[in-house]
Specification:
By secondary structure, the chain is α/β, with parallel strands linked by helices. The chain is built from 11 helices and 14 strands.
Length: 357
């Protein structure tokens, strides 16, 4: 479904001499689903915004609106930004996809970037990152240091399930006895509930935590209890210097800069991009002080293998991969294509929690 990032960007950003280069600064806006804090999902996208400003001094003027709920509020904010004359609007949250498409129909001359969405239109591009690749690598580190893991998650959508499954597969690739227990919160950003879920998992024997929510509450809870945790979105050693195993980070600066440049030179086109470790959109680094040097080296070596195409996360290997109800989901010697990954609706063997139905 998605093309290689480099190819997609080349197609999306190719300079066409038929369009004169603009001399006025491009007005670019960003809509954030949660408050802008020191770390987390919104912070990483804001780092991408700042990277655009640094790369295009005098050629772009950026702004952002934070803590915008998905649904009607998002539609109102996106429409307001279009009416204010922004030429490109980035909407990085899955629940922004439909509001973005709706507003885009009203403003055909405005370019929209639906980040984590999958639907496109002539003036709407879709982009996402293969977060699950980082999850697998972090799982290797976690599996070397623990057997019982807990996972605090927002919603049981494919993107989240990909991460849970990849993390579990990574753990079990080095520790076959590893298990993962999941708590689904039904929301992306609620620090008190994220913390409560983490505490509950640790009370059940969890040794290492991972999460797919918007704050650093899980990391803080792990630090307080003397447990381990994998940071998500950004490096969180500031709040969890002893707890952090590693950080699964996503890097948006290059993509955002390319898309704004395309508006500047008139070459912007709708595209679908899904990039991972190979394309520099996902990275595992920022190892904590408790992680042995040998484990760090192992993870980095596997990350290099992934970048070079020698490691595929959702591959059946010699024995195949089963879900946690015993059904074979990936046959031996086979691997999932992008369509199957994007539609993932099952949990892998080793996950102790049943999928909500």
């Amino acid at each position: 479904m998605y093309k290689n990032l480099a190819a997609a960007l080349a197609a999306a950003c190719f300079f066409s001499p038929a369009f004169p280069q603009s001399t006025a600064p491009v007005k670019a806006a960003f809509v954030y689903v949660a408050p802008l804090t020191d770390a987390g999902w919104v912070r990483q996208h804001d780092q991408g915004r700042l990277a655009v400003e640094a790369a295009l001094p005098g050629q772009v003027k950026t702004s952002y609106v934070e803590n915008v709920a998905e649904g009607p509020d998002a539609e109102r904010v996106i429409r307001d930004l279009a009416m204010q004359g922004h030429q490109i609007i980035f909407t990085p949250s899955f629940g922004y996809m439909e509001p973005t498409l709706k507003v885009a129909r009203e403003f055909p001359n405005v370019k929209f970037e639906s980040v984590t969405g999958y639907k496109t239109a002539p003036n709407v591009a879709a982009s996402n990152a293969r977060y699950y690749e980082g999850r697998y690598l972090a799982g290797i580190a976690a599996g070397r240091m623990a057997t019982q893991a807990g996972y605090v998650a927002g919603f049981p959508i494919p993107e989240v399930l990909q991460g849970i499954n990849a993390f579990t597969l990574g753990m079990r690739s080095v520790n076959p006895q590893a298990t993962v227990r999941v708590v689904f919160l039904g929301e992306w950003f609620n620090p008190p509930r994220e913390r409560d879920a983490a505490m509950s998992l640790m009370n059940q024997g969890t040794e290492v935590l991972a999460f797919h929510t918007g704050s650093n509450a899980v990391m803080v809870a792990a630090q307080e209890r003397g447990k381990l945790a994998v940071a998500y979105h950004s490096d969180m050693r500031k709040v969890a210097p002893d707890a952090q195993v590693a950080a699964v980070t996503h890097q948006w600066g290059d993509y955002y800069t390319r898309r704004v440049k395309a508006v500047l030179d008139g070459s912007w086109k709708s595209a679908q991009v899904w990039g991972g470790v190979r394309e520099g959109m996902i990275r595992v680094d920022s190892f904590g002080s408790k992680v042995p040097a040998a484990v760090q080296a192992e993870v980095l070596a596997r990350q290099k293998d992934m970048a070079n195409g020698r490691l595929t996360v959702f591959a059946g290997g010699k024995t195949g991969v089963k879900d946690n109800e015993g059904k074979t989901m990936i046959a031996a010697g086979q691997s999932l294509d992008d369509g199957a990954i994007l539609g993932m609706n099952w949990l892998v063997e080793g996950v102790a929690t049943k999928l909500p139905r």
